[in-house]
Amino acid sequence: MKKVLLLLSFVAFLGACSSSDSSSDSSGDGFNRTAMLTNWADNIIIPSFENYQTKVTTLQTAVTAFNAAPSTTELETVRTAWLEAYKAFQHASIFEIGKAEELALVSCTNVYPTNTSGISANISSGTYNLALLSQYDKQGFPAVDYMINGLGADDATIVTYYTSNTDAAKYKQYLTDLVGKLKSNADAIVNDWNGSYRTTFVNSNGNSVGSSVNRMVNIFVKNYEKNVRAGKVGIPAGIFSSGTTYTNKVEAYYKNDVSKVLLNEAVKATQDFFNGKHFNSATTGEGLKTYLTYLNVVKDGQQLSTIINNQFTTIYAANALLDDSFSNQVLTDNSKMLEAYDELQRNVTFFKTDMMPALNITVDYVDADGD
After folding, report:
1. Cα separation, 232 vs 173, whole angstroms
2. How does pLDDT run across 122-163, given as a tens digit for each residue?
3. Rounded (10°) CA dihedral 43, 44, 47, 52
4. How far apart are the C-alpha atoms of 105 and 93, rounded to whole Å?
5. CA–CA distance, 321 with 309 (Å, rounded to integer)
6. Which end of the chain is more exposed for a tag (fewer CB within 10 A), N or C?
7. Torsion over CA: 270, 349, 96, 56 (sign)
8. Residue range 157-209, pLDDT digits in tens
9. Residue 303 has what DSSP assignment?
10. Tens digit of pLDDT for each residue in 299-317?
C-alpha cells in the first residue's frame, strides 16, 4: 500500500511539474509575464484591432455611398477613409497571432506592388475567389489604392470607370468585395479576441516555444524586420537587388505621397508596443521595456531598453529627411533611403542579438536575408 501511495505522489509531482509552463508567470526569472500579457491584450492588441475595425467600417460606408452615386466628391471621401484605415492597419498588423494568423492577415491585406493585370482580369471575368493564395496580390489596401487612385490620370477619369465604362457595375462590385474582405477579416479577429482567445493568450504565460510571450516577441520582431525595415524601405531602395531600385514597390504607389506617413506610423506602433504603451493613450504598462529593465539588461554600460528607444529617435530623424513619396526618393537621392534602412536595421540587431537572448527567446522564423 505504501508503494502505491508513493507512486501516486510521484505521479502527482510530475503532473504539477509538467503543467508549470502554462501557469508560471515567468521563465524562472521572476518577471510577471501574466501582467505583461494582460497589458498587451487589453490595452494594446484588442484596442488596436477595434480601432482598425472601426476605420474599415468607415471605409466600407464610404465605398457604399460612392457606388450609389459616383462623383469626385464621394471619391475623395473614399480616399480619406482608405488612408485612415491603412494607418490603423500599421498598428494592427503587428499582431498576426490567433485568428489574424489563421486568416494570413498581412498577406491578404498588404501585398505590394498590387497585380493590376490580375485585378483587371478579375473584374472582366466577374469570377474570383479572394480567399485563394493566388489572389493575395489582387486585394487589400494596395488593390483599393489602384481602384481609387490608379485607374486614370485625373479624378474625373477614374469616376468614369464606375459610371460610363462598359464594366462599371463590375468595377463597383470589385471595390465592394475588396473592402468587404477587409471588413470581414477585421470582424473575425475582433470577435476572436473578445471571445475565448484573449483568455487563451493571457493564460499561456510560460516560456515554451509555443507560449504567448515567445510567439508574440517573434511575431513582433519579424514584422519589424520583414514588413517595416525590408518591405517599406529596403526593397524599394535596392538593398536586396544588388542596388537596383524599384519605384513601384512602395506602399500606396498610386497615391504616391504617403509612403513616409505609413512608415512612421509603423515605426510608432513598433516603439509603442516595445514600451508597453496603451493604444491611443499616454499610459504605459508592463512590456518589453519593463522586462529588460527588470532583468537589468545592459549593453556597453547602458540599459538596453534606453539604447533601443534612443535608436527609435534616430530612426525618426532619418525618416524626416525622406520625401513623402519613396518612388521619388529612390530616383532623386537613394542615399537617404539607404541611411534610413541602416538606422532601422540597428534596432533589428538590438532586438534579435541582444533582447531576445536576454529574455531566453529563440528566433523561430527564417532569416533569408542574413540579418
Report:
1. 30
2. 999 999 999 999 999 999 999 999 999 999 999 999 999 999
3. 170
4. 7
5. 19
6. N
7. positive
8. 999 999 999 999 999 999 999 999 999 999 999 999 999 999 999 999 999 99
9. E
10. 999 999 999 999 999 999 9
Residue type present at position 322: L
Task: Give the residue from 17, 101, 87, 111 showing the smallest Cα distance to 267.
Answer: 87
Distance of alpha carbon 318 from alpha carbon 320, whole angstroms: 5
**Max Cα-Cα span within the chain:** 90
Letter for the amino acid at 58?
T
Tens digits of residue pLDDT in 227-273:
999 999 999 999 999 999 999 999 999 999 999 999 999 999 999 99
Q: Residue 69 has what DSSP assignment?
A: S
Query: Which residue, 273, 272, 293, 265, is CA-closest to 216?
Result: 273
- Residue corresponding to grid cell 519605384: 247
CATH topology of domain 28-205: A middle domain of Talin 1 (1.20.1420)
Q: Cis ω on the peptide bond leading into residue 113 (within 30° of 0)? A: yes
- With b meaning 16 or more CB within 10 Å and e meaning fewer, what string describes 156-188? eebbebbeeeeebebbbebbeebbebbbebbeb
Q: Within the chain, where are the H helices?
A: 2-18, 20-23, 33-39, 46-68, 72-92, 99-102, 116-125, 140-149, 155-160, 168-192, 198-203, 212-222, 259-275, 288-294, 304-320, 326-332, 334-349, 356-358
Fold of 207-363: A middle domain of Talin 1 (1.20.1420)
Q: Which amino acid is at 229?
A: R
Rounded CA-CA distance 6/10 in Å is: 6
Asked if 28-205 and 207-363 have one fold, the answer is yes
Cα–Cα dist 40/288, whole Å = 10
Q: Are 225 and 368 in contact (CB under 8 A)?
A: no
